[in-house]
Design a protein that fits this description.
With about 375 residues, the chain is of the alpha/beta class. The chain has 13 helices and 13 strands. It has two domains: about 190 residues, 3-Layer(aba) Sandwich (Rossmann fold); about 150 residues, Rossmann fold (3-Layer(aba) Sandwich). The strands form two sheets. The chain has a seven-stranded parallel β-sheet. It has a six-stranded parallel β-sheet with strand order 10-9-8-11-12-13, with helices on both faces. It is globular. The model has no long low-confidence stretch (mean pLDDT about 95). InterPro entries: Glyco_trans_1, Glyco_trans_4-like_N, Glycosyltransferase_grp1. This is Glycosyltransferase. It holds the Pfam family Glyco_transf_4. Keywords: Glycosyltransferase, Transferase.
Length: about 375
């Protein structure tokens, strides 16, 4: 294990603050990353949207402007309000300028931004940068990611995502996301089904509603509405008829909800880069019925507590959920143990520090 304590700048995405309740899996992953690195003795500075936790130790240049929608009904996870990027990009540039000016005291940049500027400037900062690819190949990121200075310093959250980027000439090692066992605890199970995550069309919660109605079980939904029109048209009409919407929940309440459920439904209608909710549910002992798309199968592995069905098939999802929900509750402890053996944050921390060692020494090729 690496014993060297570093000063690390973690660059978060431009859209949402890094705080609870988490806006999505990416924000949850960055939040855990900062906590984990600090707990292991590293000095971590966070470049993130105003309102994030952990900003108290960051220079003013590391604060990015909050996203403010003139009309919240127009808010989406795929666009920005008018004029926002004109404020956000200079703030990001100022943070990168600060890193370059203080390259003598900053050891490494841990980049999770979905904007190309950190990648484009990596070779000129004088500080090694490790970038995690959390999404399918975004056109704006492909060209800067191909640059030679990133050799050995790109990570993908799944083999599926790495293969997608490879088709565009970008090589990345695979480092799956991780979960904190202390925050995702074993739950007792229950009768209800649960769906949790960002409420946007590509996450397919409307198919989970269809499947739940086929089982006759109540579906409890938790998450932030990322597309208001989608929610109003496809989810709201079913509320109160065996479907409960609980809103965005803080992590302790969310883990409790998932742990008191009979089965979690995971319904991406796109090639999901990873599928953190699968690992989180399994860590509470709750089995998962999921669409087999993107990196979901990798997260599922050979776990008997996961059943994969064709993407978009509500009937197959309902059947899988019902079979899992009728399983033996005493299996929940083994389900959790299997998940933690693969996705424990502590295990991932050791791998990450080794990657940082090699990146800093230009030894990882």
């Amino acid at each position: 294990m690496s014993r060297r304590k570093r000063t690390i700048v973690v660059i978060a995405p431009l859209r949402h603050p890094i705080r609870e309740p988490h806006a999505g899996g990416l924000e949850a992953m960055v939040w855990d990353r900062v906590r984990m690195l600090r707990a292991r003795g590293h000095r971590v500075l966070l470049c993130a949207v105003e309102g994030s936790q952990f900003l108290e130790d960051s220079p003013p240049e590391f604060r990015l402007p909050a996203v403010v929608w003139p009309d919240e009904r127009e808010a989406t996870d795929s666009t920005f309000p008018p004029g926002h990027l004109e404020r956000a990009i200079p703030a990001l540039e100022a943070a990168l300028d600060h890193i370059g000016r203080h390259a003598d005291v900053i050891d490494l940049v841990d980049n999770h931004s979905l904007h190309p500027q950190p990648l484009a400037r990596a070779g000129r900062l004088g500080v090694p940068m490790v970038t995690t690819l959390h999404t399918p190949p975004l056109p704006r990121l492909v060209a800067p990611a191909r640059a030679g200075e990133h050799r050995g310093r790109l990570l993908a959250v799944s083999a599926h995502t790495a293969a997608e980027w490879r088709e565009h000439g970008v090589e990345a090692a695979v480092l799956p996301n991780a979960i904190d066992p202390g925050r995702w605890r074993l739950g007792p199970g229950g009768r209800d089904l649960v769906w949790f995550g960002r409420i946007v069309p590509e996450k397919g919660v409307h198919v989970a509603v269809q499947a739940a109605r086929l089982t006759g079980r109540t579906l409890r939904i938790a998450g932030r509405v990322g597309d208001v029109d989608y929610f109003q048209e496809h989810i709201r009409p079913f509320l109160g008829d065996g479907v409960d919407y609980l809103g965005p929940l803080g992590q302790p309440a969310l883990a409790d909800l998932v742990g008191r459920s009979a089965c979690a439904l995971v319904t991406p209608l796109w090639p999901e880069p990873f599928g953190l909710v699968v690992a989180e549910a399994l860590a509470t002992g709750t089995p998962v019925a999921a669409f087999d798309t993107g990196g979901i199968g990798e997260v599922a592995g050979s776990a008997p507590a996961v059943r994969l069905v064709p993407m978009g098939d509500a009937e197959a999802l309902a059947d899988a959920a019902e079979r899992l929900a009728r399983g033996r509750r005493r299996d929940r402890r083994q389900t959790r143990a299997d998940a933690l053996a693969r996705f424990s944050l502590e295990h991932r921390a050791i791998e990450l520090e080794h990657i940082f060692d090699m990146a800093g020494a230009d030894a990882w090729v």
